[in-house]
Amino acid sequence: MIKTKYQWKTKAEGIVKDEEIFKTILKNRKISNYEIFFSMGKEHLHDPFLLNDMQKAVNRIKSAIKQKEKIIIFGDYDCDGITAIAVLVRTLRHLGADIDFDLPDRFYEGYGLNMRAVEDIISNGYKLVITVDNGITCVEEVESLKNAGIDTIITDHHEAAEVIPDAYAIVHPKLSPEYPFTEIAGVMVAYKLAQALSGHYLENLFDLVMIGTIADLMPLDNENQAMVNLGIEVIKNTKNIGLKKLIEFSNLDIINVTAIAFKIAPKINSSGRLNQAKSAVELLITEDIKIANDLIIDIEKNHDLRKRLTEEAFLICEENVNPKDSILVVASKDLHEGVIGICAQRLVEKYQ
């Protein structure tokens, strides 16, 4: 039997009989029919035009493509953000857009659109900015872009503050009263925009959306579960060269949610943790096998380095822990910033 990592507060009293375990799990997740739940497909994906400002965003992007305006996608450095960038880059390239992407320096700029990026966007002549997995709190940055004559379309899923950026369009599930399910990842919001732009489901992107959804720990319910079902099937025969390389170098016996969560997504995340997220994006958007071969080596090196840095950092954390404390607070200048979250999680698991 696998030993649990946590002291669970269970809903079922005592020890559940072996033959009742599956039924108990279904009951706890409020799944009435597991066959339907695990076979949900495209019919359970909601209409993208139910999201606020979707039509406005689509019209502006199509106009930019027609006018041959320079467009830039600004994303985040985690797996959700990286896959979201890849989804829109691949879509807009197919539609003939003049498209680039950027993301912040994790260690010096932190999360989200920033003034360094704004200055670069202005100086490089971009006319349209599309944020993915960020932007909803970037009031000053969006205002600066607007003052420079640059439109911003925000696609995000994070909590909004009291003041909303004065963007050209904001596509956000929590700001969309008509949208029936708000707990979707940034990559799903980006996919909804891609779907609305193309006019069809874009099955070839299901694998990327599935990976970002799992990596961002979205609740596997409603259209999230539908996308996971669809994405698992697509990735088994994926046409994405970069994903093929990730699968090849992960030595997977089976491709399922566990494999994505513990093998594929962490490798994409590792690049972001070491400030090499652009390499992960390039891997997921390239159509060149030679480039993919070079990038996967870099991704693997980043992942190995991330694991080594994590082990070193965790040893430092252990030296600073007093297990008798009811609340653990650990601080050290010797911790690598990119692995602090992983160390915190491991401390939670060990000391409960």
Describe the structure.
The protein is an alpha/beta fold. Helices cover 49% and strands 7% of the residues. It has a five-stranded parallel β-sheet with strand order 2-1-3-4-5, with helices on both faces. The protein is globular and about 65 Å long. The two termini are 20 Å apart. The mean pLDDT is 94.
Largest sheet: 5 strands, parallel
Order of helices and strands: HHHEHEHEHEEHHHHHHHH
* Mean pLDDT across all amino acids: 94
Rg from Cα: 21 Å
Through-space gap between termini: 20 Å
Helical content, roughly? 40-55%
Q: Per DSSP, what share of the residues sits in E-state strands of 2 or more residues?
A: 5-15%
**Low-pLDDT sequence parts:** none
**How many extended strands?**
5
Q: What topology, given as strand order, has the largest sheet?
A: 2-1-3-4-5
The rough form would be described as globular
Number of helices: 14
Structural class: alpha/beta
Q: How do you describe this structure in short?
A:
The chain is of the alpha/beta class and 352 residues long.
Notable traits:
352 residues, five-stranded parallel beta sheet, 49% helix
Write the layout of secondary structure elements.
Elements: H1 21-28, H2 34-37, H3 54-66, E1 70-74, H4 79-94, E2 98-102, H5 115-123, E3 128-132, H6 139-147, E4 151-155, E5 169-171, H7 186-198, H8 206-215, H9 222-235, H10 241-248, H11 257-273, H12 277-285, H13 289-319, H14 340-351
Parallel strand pairs: 1-2, 1-3, 3-4, 4-5
Helix pairs in contact: 4-7, 4-8, 4-12, 5-6, 7-8, 8-9, 8-11, 10-13, 11-12, 11-13, 12-13, 13-14
